[in-house]
Amino acid sequence: MRPTSGENAATYHRLTSAPVVLQVAASPVSPALVLRPWRMEDVAALVEVSRDRALRRWASSGVDNDSDGTRWVQAQQQGWAAGDRFGFAVLETQPGSVRAQLVGNVVLKKVTSGKPAAEVGYWTAAHARGRGVAARALEALTDWAFDAFEADGLERLELLHQVDNLASCRVAQKSRYDFDTLLPAAPPSFPRDGHLHIRVRERLKSSRLLRTG
């Protein structure tokens, strides 16, 4: 599938010339993370983690079985193909383990060439919460987004969560997404008031990366 409008065609060709894989180094208390586009081989693990009540409370779409999981992964792949939504499976790699374990998801969405703002989102599997997975993955996604879409005019990333999602608010704060606005509820997709957090591209950091890259 190719972008139909042409406005994101350059971005599409740039991002699909090679798989995008983001690496997050291990910390003294947390294993290394790998962020890569969702694959069909992730369906079984996706269905398993989606049984968590807390995740189902905040997720915009439910995954109850393999058919739901397949459609969900296909939607992520279609977002990559269209060049406007980029979902990453977050995998945790343990020393000596043959297979990485699914621990979460991060996504960059509402990407349009020439538009200065896009949106980020994330969730963490129940078994991986409390270890900083979401914040570390979001930081990697943020750096990648500003670097990958700088030429398309991306200047600002927005993060939205409902007011009672305190864990998501903590992730935003840890990842330097500053609180900006209290948003009114918009049922059914956003049934409660929410927070808008914003992070602006760091120009000095970007220019330094260009000089030393």
UniProtKB/TrEMBL annotation:
**This protein's name:** GNAT family N-acetyltransferase
Per its UniProt record, what PANTHER family does this chain match? ACETYLTRANSFERASE, RIBOSOMAL-PROTEIN-SERINE ACETYLTRANSFERASE
Top-level taxon of origin? Bacteria
Could you tell me which InterPro entries the record lists for this protein? Acyl_CoA_acyltransferase, GNAT_dom, Ribosomal_N-acetyltransferase
Keywords of the record, alphabetical order, are: Acyltransferase, Transferase
According to the UniProt entry, what is the EC number of this protein?
Answer: 2.3.-.-
Sequence ranges assigned to domain N-acetyltransferase in this UniProt record: 33-193
Which GO molecular function entries does the Swiss-Prot or TrEMBL record give?
acyltransferase activity
Q: Name the Pfam families for this protein.
A: Acetyltransf_3 (PF13302)
Identify the PROSITE patterns for this entry: GNAT
Known SUPFAM superfamilies for this protein?
Acyl-CoA N-acyltransferases (Nat) (SSF55729)
